[in-house]
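README, section 4: Worked example with a bound small molecule

Sections 1 through 3 covered apo chains. Here we extend the same pipeline to holo records, where the ligand is supplied as SMILES alongside the sequence. The molecule in this example is flavin mononucleotide. Nothing else about the input changes; the structure line simply encodes the ligand pose together with the chain.
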Amino acid sequence: MSRRIPVTASVSPAILGEKLKFSTSGRVARNRFLKAALTERVSTYVHGDPEKSGLPTPQLCNMYSKFSHGGFGMIFTGNIMVDKIHLEAAGNAIIDPSLNSPERREAFGNLAKAMKSDPEVLALAQLSNAGRQTPQFLCDEPISASDVQLMATRRGYGFGKPRPLKLEEIKPLVIDHFVFAAKFCKDAGFDGIEIHSAHGYLLAQFISETTNHRTDKYGGSLENRVRLNLEIFEAIRKEIPAETGFIIGIKMNSVEFQEKGLKCNEALVMCKEYERVGFDFIELSGGTIEKLAFSHLSDSTMAREAFFLEFAKEIRPQLTKTLVYLTGGFRTVPGMVKAIQDGVCDGVGIGRPITAEIDFPAKILSGKIQSALINPFDQDFAISNIASNTQMWQAQQTPYNSNVDINAGIMDMSNEKVEEHFRSAVQKYAEELVALAKTGKPLYGVFNYTPEQLCEKVAA
Ligand SMILES: Cc1cc2nc3c(=O)[nH]c(=O)nc-3n(C[C@H](O)[C@H](O)[C@H](O)COP(=O)(O)O)c2cc1C
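The generated complex, written as structure tokens:
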């Protein structure tokens, strides 16, 4: 039996169906729903061979044509890496100037086409460089703002000590890569890009004093730490002017719960700068790999649903042109509607609930549901992250077919039997990851777990 998060009083979803107009590019999202970026880790990967790596596959396109029909106003890819070395994981899609080829252009063209299979949806590519958050098996000495090592493990793997980018390297190694990737995405048929400057990746490493100890024009004052993002924006806009209708947004942290991490008042100053230069939208998030924030860190945020709501509340009213999306924690229609009505955000970004139910927005807007399916792992990001990757992989196994349930083949963790079976399977998988990490061998892909495995078990 499927189970949903209980809602005490239903509310009309009408406000969520309102259009949003981006003031710089002039484009319009048909409603307030955003499919947040969710790394898929299933593009091609051949260890040590970037030419053969990072190509989106037909299976990935299967999933995105489903998301295209899920009822969203705007959908994002997972992080596409703009540097062939500094990946977030093996299996990321990659666009790097040195890997330009007709084959790569065709693969990304197919991805954009799949995302636009409902042409009314805005399809954006999220562009990123992992910097010091590049797993060590991919790079021993990654680039960063400074030489502050990430002392954490992810899926069992650690991270190397980074080297600070030299001043003269910032343009060729960072800015030019983002510009190249943005143009590549435009040519491929995407409606725009989102620059990933959240969650501790390279651009966030420049923003946060925890990781930026520079003394040149990219370090020290807030004005200096935000400079790189502004330069990237301006360099892209120079090549792709607003008149083209190409959307440019940014994902940023509203807060980092670390001693020297970004504070909300600093985030506000940055947002005003982003608005000044003309970003179409800002997507507010929070946390880093070192200090994850994708769960309720206090009881008080639980009632308000969205994790970063109290920070967004300070930021959104100060902006007049740039639209604000808030991502993280939205699970019910009353929670989303209240955030919009209170002026906390213009749009709602959704992550984990939509890997379980791709047509979550469509069902909400048609009045069928008021909340997400129960996710028993929602408060445990490590497991819910693996589970979401698995659900996305499951969705990739079949093409979109309007005659078939869009969620067919995706495990329903709200079902207690599924939960129980997946819980023990994922435990075993996590142990395998740790053992693999100890060998130093590369980790590629995600947990390929099928509901059939569950059926066999139940039948036995
Ligand atoms: C499987 C998975 C992959 C993610 N990958 C990305 C990513 O590539 N880029 C990004 O900005 N955030 C990524 N996130 C964070 C989500 O976009 C979102 O901010 C987070 O899950 C909180 O939203 P939720 O509570 O609705 O899941 C990922 C989250 C999950 C669960």
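What to look for in the output: Residues 36-39, 78-79, 126, 196, 198-199, 251, 285, 294, 327-330, 350-352, 385, 388-389 surround flavin mononucleotide (CB under 6 Å). DSSP finds 15 helices and twelve strands in the chain.

Section 5 describes how to batch many such records.
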